Every structure is written in structure tokens, then in C-alpha cells.
Description:
Elements: H1 4-13, E1 18-23, H2 27-37, E2 42-48, H3 52-61, E3 69-71, H4 75-83, E4 87-90, H5 93-98, E5 104-107, H6 112-124, E6 128-131, H7 134-151, E7 155-157, H8 162-175, E8 179-187, H9 201-207, H10 211-218, H11 221-234, E9 237-238, E10 246-247, H12 253-256, E11 271-276, E12 282-287, H13 291-299, E13 307-312, H14 321-331, E14 344-350, E15 368-374, H15 375-381, E16 393-395, E17 410-412, H16 417-428
Parallel strand pairs: 1-2, 1-5, 2-4, 3-4, 5-6, 6-7, 8-11, 9-11, 10-11
Antiparallel strand pairs: 8-12, 12-13, 14-15, 16-17
Amino acid sequence: MLNINRKLAKLExxxxxxxxxxxxxxxxxxGMISQIxxxxxxxxxxxxxxxxDNITNAYSHAGIEANxxxxxxxxxxxxxxxxxxxxxxxxxxxxxxxxxxxDVVVDATGVPNIGAEIAWDTILNRKHIVMLNAExxxxxxxxxxxxxxxxxxxxxxxxxxxxxxxxxxxxxxxxMGFEIVxxxxxxxNPLNLEANPETAKEEAKLKGASPKMLASFxxxxxxxxxxxxxxxxxxxxxxxPGMHGFEATVNELPGIFLEKDKGGKLNGRKVVEFINxxxxxxxxxxxxxxxxxxxxxxxxxMGDGPxxxxxxxxxxTSLETPLSIAKAFFxxxxxxxxxxxxxxxxxxxxxRDLEAGEYLDSIGGFTVYGKLLKATEAKSLNALPIGxxxxxxxxxRSIKKGDIITYDxxxxxxxxxxxxxxxxxxxxx
Length: 429
């Protein structure tokens, strides 16, 4: 990771650059385009979005002149534009995943079904795929990773996203031989299981954010999904359904992450967790059984043990995504991926009393939120993964507020790609 800057500079000095295809020109995509335009050896050469203006505005804000932006749905015209060092704006997602000139594709849609489609098509076209879409990853990531491995390409989550930032701490500590006790993140806002786009509207307006996206953070679904991604990458599990959500400062973390019989708050070790009070940071709780190591950690002012905290007080979301793009391109390695398969499952819970015949909406909506369970617990309940929820899913019976929704409770009125891939994954694993 430390020498990516030199690899990119060398690539540019050789007259070349990594050609990135992007799907989704919302907040994350716009920031990424501008960041990459400031870098050496990389460019977002084609972007797809439902609205062309989103793309042209993103390129314009990145400093790209209007005459360098080619709007087209035609593959041949798009290839020609890229070969002439221009950039392409399109509404055709498959143009991004199939264009021969593209080296790495980034999904920044945040929509599980669309993300699954993008990853599937990208891997079939033997291109690396970077997912800024943890919802799709925790639902069908294990199968997509297996496909990518078989195709000789990289399937990866993104640096800068909290799971990616946590994984960097995990890899650092694991490489040095520390015992890793817990992995976690701060939560930016108080947990409100009833949050929805209407209750989040005013705050979203002040922040310039989507009310639906903000509601998905407030109701805890995003936190559950993010720690689900960490669970699938490491094998660490929630200490209890939904995790604890302790309130703490960074200095208090080592004491909290001890077993209850040792004065802490845990039932076991190797857990994923979220903490109120340390956002926007991420952390790893580490320990050692070596006397000399503990003495040196104390000398280094890391605390008195037996636990120590590695804390990173920031994550730069899509602004760091280029690091994952470069890592995939140069080193054929992922930042984070579901190495351990399905270890956790973010299941679907009724946000309010729901009636038979009612359609579910989506993550951050009015009907459901996500809760992280161990995968074995979710399977025993036949619980519906939150990533499979969309407006084509209808309830066959009434569900009480707070109850977990199962596969038996729903039917699809129109089958989606992510359901098909999840069905294949369930048979495969």
C-alpha cells in the first residue's frame, strides 16, 4: 500500500494509466471522480448513471472540459473516446462492464440488486470489481468472490469504507502476531429503529444527503451491514444478536472488551461491535501473551494491558477507493473480501406492524431495518437477508413490529438478479 503512489507515477511516466469504469454518480461517485482526477496514473474513463447531468456535472467539477466529455450509448463510440483520452457519460451500465478499455469497475450505486448485477457482469467480462456496496457484498459476496477467483480477477470492498478501514487494522495486527480480540466502528448517530425518510428529512436537508440513506444509518442497518462484511472477512461474530452498541471513549475500549468474568462486558472473544461515542473512527482490540511484548506496549504508552486499542479516527469513504483500484490492478489483491464465506447475516426486521399483502420497500425505508445475527442463527430461523428486500417482495402474512421476517413470510412478484445469485450461493456453500 505504501508504494502505490510510486507505482502510479511510474505508470503515468510510461504514458499509461488505469482506466476506471464507474456506475453511480451520486455523492460517493462524484467525490471519487474528483479525487482520481487529482492523481497520477488513473482516470475514470466511463461513468454510468440514470441521469446524464449527474455525470457531466461530476466530470465538470473534477476539472474536465465539456469538449472532453462524450455522451453516448454506443460501444464503438465509447471505445474511440477513451482511446482519444476523453471520458464517457452514459445511462448504459453494461457499457461500463463490457468496454474493452476498462481495467477496473467500481459500483457506487448502493442498491443491492444493481450492485449484484454490476459485479456479475464485470466478473464475466474478466475485469476487477470494487464494491462501494456492502449491502450486495454481505448478501452474495462469497459467490462473487469465488467467480472472480476462478476468472483471475479481483473482487474487493473499498478502502475508506469502514469495513475496509477495519480490515487494514486487522491485517496489520494479524501480521505481527497479536491476538485480535474485537473489531469495530463508531456509530455517528443514536440508534433509532423507527427512523425513516420522513423523520430524517430535515437533518438530511441540512447535510445535503438523501433522507433514505440517512435513515439507513440512523436505524442501524448500515452499521449491521458494515460489521457483517467484517464478519465474513475475518470470521469474527456479533457477541449477541444486533451487537451491544456500548457507549465509550477510545480509552475505555480495552476494558470493555474483556469477558464479563474478568470485569469486562463480553460473553466471548473474536467479536464485531459498534460503539457510540467514537465516530467516525474504527478500531481493533489486540492482546499478547508475551511478557516482553506487554512490557514494550506499556513503555510505548499503549496502556497497561491486557488489551490494547488500535484506533483510526477517520475513514475517507470513496476518496480512498482509488487505493483499492490500484491494489487490484497492480497486485491482484483485495482490500477486503468475504474470505470466510457467510459468517454473519443481516436479517430483515419489521420497523412497524406490517399487514399481509403489503410490499416491503428497501433499506432506509418505512417498513424494515437490518439486524446482524450469526449466520447459523439466521439459517435456523430461515430469516430473510436484508439485501434481498425490494419493492417486489410482498408479505404473505402480517408481521408484528420488531419481529424477524423469514423467507416463509414473503413471496417475490418479480424475481431479481440478487435473489437468483443468492439461490446459487446457498446451493454452492
